[in-house]
Records
---
Amino acid sequence: MMWEILLYMYVLYSPDWHYPRTMPIFLFLYCVIFAIVHSVVRFGIGFKVHYIILCLLCSPRMYKYYIYTDYVSAKRLGKLYVVTLLLGGLCWICDHVFCKQISSWPINPQGHALWHLFMGFNSYFANTFLMFCRAQQLAWSPKVVHVMGVLPYVKIEKPKHQ
């Protein structure tokens, strides 16, 4: 999950960086170092707080991209990103706070497993939305199309001169 947030940060802020080669190297090293330290120290709450901070750092630019796009299908991707983030967070919080009560139910809804499912879709929708926005910035005429009418993806038609 951490590397996905750093990927979002890279895509979101890359047009504004003055050193375009330095930042990807920094983010890669940051992710590797964090993974090594986390595997040794096992941050409990620190990992979760760090994840939330990284998500909050991405939010302003995602919102900016959302309000500046005129395509309804791209805005739908942005909405799906937010909805899956909120549902995943709600599942995780309910599972964490009400663990003892939920464990005694005849059928356990497995909130932590649902969190993983929703966050997987969340990552997909975020990457798809960012791909659309970046292609739009580069004037590649992106379109959101669907696999079997269900799963959205971005189809890009680059101009011949690029």
---
Amino acid sequence: MANGDENTTKKLHIVMFPWLAFGHIIPFLELSKFLALKGHKISFISTPRNIDRLPKIPSEFSNSITFVKIPLPKIDGLPKDAEATMDITSEEMTYLKKAMDGMENEVTNFLENNCPDWIIQDFAQYWLAPISTRLVGGFFGSTKMDPFETKATYRLHEARWMVESSQKNVSGVSDMYRNGVTIEGADAIIIRHCHEFEGQWLKLLEDLHHMPVLPTGLMPPIVESSSHEKNESWISIKEWLDEKPKGSVVYVALGSEVTVGQNEINELARGLELSGSPFFWVLRKSSGLGSIDPIVLPDGFEERTKDRGIVWKSWAPQLKILSHESVGGFLTHCGWSSIIEGLMFGHSLIMLPFLVDQGLNARIIEDKGVGIEVPRNEEDGSYTSNSVANSVKLVMVKNDGKLIREKAKELSSIFSNKELHDKYIENLINFLEDYKKSQ
């Protein structure tokens, strides 16, 4: 520490470098804001197009958060202008990782020229470990083994997908290796969780890696009332929701980064129709800049369900919809941010995961008793309209689902508790400041 009052906290220069997925980029940006409010300087690294797509940050951060645009190298197999997972299909994911690996030289030059106090990075950038003395990674897997009883296991079709994906991995580096090397070079692990919900998992993580595990809390987002009130889309959506009974509507959204096949869309549509529940389905074009296939719904579906359902084919204000009193359940792909947003408002979850980490999320949530996973064929991962309909009916209206609905409402007191989660951020900031003082 520099000469002067020993109690004076040195303001830190912290580099943030998330994986190229907005489900990672946005939480990294939110954490950046918390750190910047404490007077620390943030350098936020991503690609030009990703940075340009970020929500505008308030002017109060103009001197404390600097966006560092580092181009993504062009490689064969990656669509033109694709810079995030929302721009590609799941089959193209490995090309995005290979392209990100090509950012190494420019990222290294930036770090060497700026000498940050901390680098908070994601799982994928394994090549940072040898050139960084301060790396903090996100949990993807474990480099060690420890006995631990859990129902959070991969299904057969998920395990098969992982094996097949590794065989087609053009980047030449597996996700487990990326994560393992990153953690081995880290001083601590930062993770978007809290002890009140998953305390046993956080302890396990600390025991496995023998280093501090620092929860950020859940960082529940704030519903902005002013930004959408005059938005024409929200006005139209709100008018539709206002007409529905309290707690009756299933909100359906599978995220912007999941590629859903035509047969899967058909079965989901028929399942919603069979369920009899009112629904608001956000159904946007499949991810992937190279994707030209239109969204096709079963013949007559929209006409048959027009009195109780709506299919919304453009951007929708998810938080505003979830906060509306007519919404009672959330059919989700189980991205962690979506889970947090659903449980913030006490909505029980109908879970339809597509990517393997989402499957683990679904199993943990089901074990907590606040949602159910739509049954799938263990061999190929397919699901039927009946399995969708039965899951929706159980969660939304059946007596058998009453306990699920009650537990979800109870859990909202944890997931929506901003004061609780702000304390986690304070503890994280204290760690970052105190650790540097001790060096």
